[in-house]
Amino acid sequence: MQQNGSSGSNGSDGCSRERQAPSFSPLPAATTRVRRFIQERRTLPLPRVMVVFSAAEDTEKPSDAMSSSDSTEDDFRKPATPSPNLTLSKPLRSTLDTQEQEFPEVISLNVGGMYFTTRLSTLRRYEDTMLAAMFSGRHYIPHDAEGRFFIDRDGTYFGDILNFLREGELPHRDRVRAVHREAQYYAIGPLLDSLEDIQPLTGEKVRQAFLDLLPYYKDNLERIVEIAKLRAMHKKARFAKLKICVYKEEMPITPYERPLFNSLRFERSDSETKLFEHHCEVDVSFGPWEAVADVYDLLHCIVSDLAERGITAEQQCIGVCDKHLINHYYCKRPIYEFKITWW
């Protein structure tokens, strides 16, 4: 009886476990959510673009215990996995690229706080310019509070830029340099070519051709400014004086040799040349060079370039080096005194 009872008891327990087993089987959370969506007859959300760009090897692999129970969830993930030959980002990018911005026929501009109005065709007059690229529709242009297209640039000479684009009008001579800088910024090649063919830029090109013979010219100009500043600060003075040697001939010569000097280059042998090598006792030295331009032309360049920096410079010849070299030869390079006034 006890065996039957025990067996009957065991049998009832076995039946009970068989009936209760399905209710205690572990279900993954994802399967529960899927079933809940099905019961509520709700539509599963479509996968977002972020899922498309995730690499296949980066996805986490399900554990062995959950692999069999996640089959239902995998069925919903498979449609979202892109094929190797399919890229969803390309059509999206191409669609964005083809949506070019459209402009009205009349354009209102705000250039550094100055307002201008012109036709769209005027801004697109020359294709290889910055303005044509800006208003091609391929680039974003910010607007000010009034809806005008904003260009973050000083607009003082922008009117001269528009006048050239409209009818080829060139600025007045005193505005040529400034407009030339603006034309460089906006990359307007035809305007640059036109400005460089008129004064003062034409004269500047000729002048620069002469200064190119003196590759040290800019460095020497910087030395003049630096020495004059240090001396004025040291003496607590309003001005400073410098001695500058400016000579055109390659070799120092005596007055007796000058009648025989028939070329721009005075020829001597290498051994004789070493006898005449020396440095004049000056602060800065310019020369020699081979050109028609003479010493006074170079002095004018030095004074005018200092004036461009707002530095007042006066010069006068105070004699020659007159250093004895050999026999009856003396250095006859002219020495100039420069007075640099700071205020």
TrEMBL record:
Record region (Disordered): 1-32, 57-94
GO BP: membrane hyperpolarization; protein homooligomerization
InterPro entries assigned to the protein according to its UniProt record, in alphabetical order: BTB/POZ_dom, BTB_KCTD7, KCTD7/14_C, SKP1/BTB/POZ_sf, T1-type_BTB
Main location: membrane
Superkingdom, natural source: Eukaryota
Subcellular location: Cell membrane; Cytoplasm, Cytosol
Keywords, ordered alphabetically: Cell membrane, Cytoplasm, Membrane
GO cellular component, one term: cytosol
Residue stretches making up the BTB domain: 105-203
Positions with biased composition (Low complexity): 1-14
Database matches in SMART domains: BTB (SM00225)
One of the Pfam families matching this protein, by short name: KCTD_C
Entry-linked PANTHER family: BTB_POZ DOMAIN-CONTAINING PROTEIN KCTD7, POTASSIUM CHANNEL TETRAMERIZATION DOMAIN-CONTAINING
Entry protein name: BTB/POZ domain-containing protein KCTD7
